[in-house]
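Morning!

As promised:
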Amino acid sequence: MLVAEGLVKRYGETTALTGFDLTVAPGEIVGLIGHNGAGKTTFVEVVAGLVRPDAGRVTVAGLPPGRAARRRLGVAPQDIALYHSATVRQNLRLFGALAGLRGRALSTSIDEVAEALDLTGLLDRAVGVLSGGQQRRTQAATALLHRPAVLLLDEPTAGADPTTRRALLEVVRQRAADGTAICYTTHYLPELEDLGATIAVARNGRVVARGDRDTLLAGLPGEVLVEFRDGPPQRIATTDPAATLADVLATGRTPVAVDIRRPDLDALYAALEVS
Amino acid sequence: MYRFAAVARHNAVLFAREPGPAIGRIVMPLVFVSLLRPLYQAAQGRAAGTTQAVAGTLVLFSLLGMSLVGWAIVTERGWRTLDRLRATPARTIELVAGKAVPVIVLLLAQQAVLIGYAVAVLGLRPANYAMLALAVLGWAVALLGMGSAIGALARSHSELSLVVDTGSVVLGGLAGAMVPLSTMPGWARAAAPASPGYWAMQSISGALDGDTGTALRAIGVLLAIGIAAGAIAAARIARGWRRGHPL
């Protein structure tokens, strides 16, 4: 599992993490969301051992940052970090070998991950000639090869096409089902709903809210959209759709269509903007 | 050990997939020394002229060969693979050594091909082959360190090219690689020891002429330069490059 407690990281006068707490249990997917600059990527860098925190502690599978922890960790950074002049297979061989795989185990793992991410036909092509989505899948594959206990996926579907997104989400679901603890940062909120992820909201360098979707959305306004035969439609934000609809009917106008929308994660984002 | 081997093999693959710059750095000195040797022989006599032509060409073009080292590092910074490697279980020494070995082999090959050509075709007769091998190795270590430092500190490929190309000509010229030191003005002779190329010329000429003491002293200086520059590069690379940094 992944445990981070009270992480603080300063860069000059900027404080990127201001007491960042997060735990991810085995088999759990935690979707880490937040605006740009909320501290998500710095948190990933701290866990990956790329950045040393000024305060706080982090453990991966019970181990402090270091080689032993990195053996149990798979990281797919936000930016594509691949050797463009090398083939997909050569990239995977390198990162698989560095993760500790050898010989037949390495070859088998490359074949399995390539199959899962629809990369089999691309294995002998140079990364530099691949599309953005194919590179994104290759990047994710480098993190998955050694079946790590903890997976850090930093915006793994940024700029990805629907095919890439589906393939990645399916692999993430499978790995979680196998017991992998997964921290998944994203701006694509519907993905977290698809994954059934626990959601952690980062803001100003710390996690300000955490819970399942329904808990976090409780009390946030949804929408009632009412269309009339004789006039423009009305869009009404409300936490009590039944009462709102009753108020509309009390005006004497007759709706021809009513659409009640529950609050979604976009509403949560909007609420965070306001607060 | 297998992680070191994996990194070394991968970096050899990267060079092999884009061999143009390496081939150019190996072939150009052969053309250069063939064309210029008659000029040096006319000025300095047959043996001394050949030694000057070979040592000078070797130092000048191996200085330009630093771009292979620096380019590789700047390119990896652009690809963001250095940080990605740091996030793996590999030790820093495994990563550094794995990357250094193919480069050292390349730098040694560049020098070995030129010396082999000079012996086989131009009639060069080194007095001490073992010392020559040491001199070439010491110079390769210095080049690796300096190239790594430039690659780690340069902010772009453009800046790297400027520093390596201009720096190579200045340091090579100051070292006496293009014009014999004895014919240069006093101020240039006084400043020459500040150039790593000067010590390379001293070590290689010493080995070719059989002056063991001069060659050994110069090799010691080259190793010190390589280690110091390598430490600067390692310190910079270990800090990593934050997102949003140039490259």
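Residues 219-274 of chain A form one domain.

Hope this helps with the figure draft.
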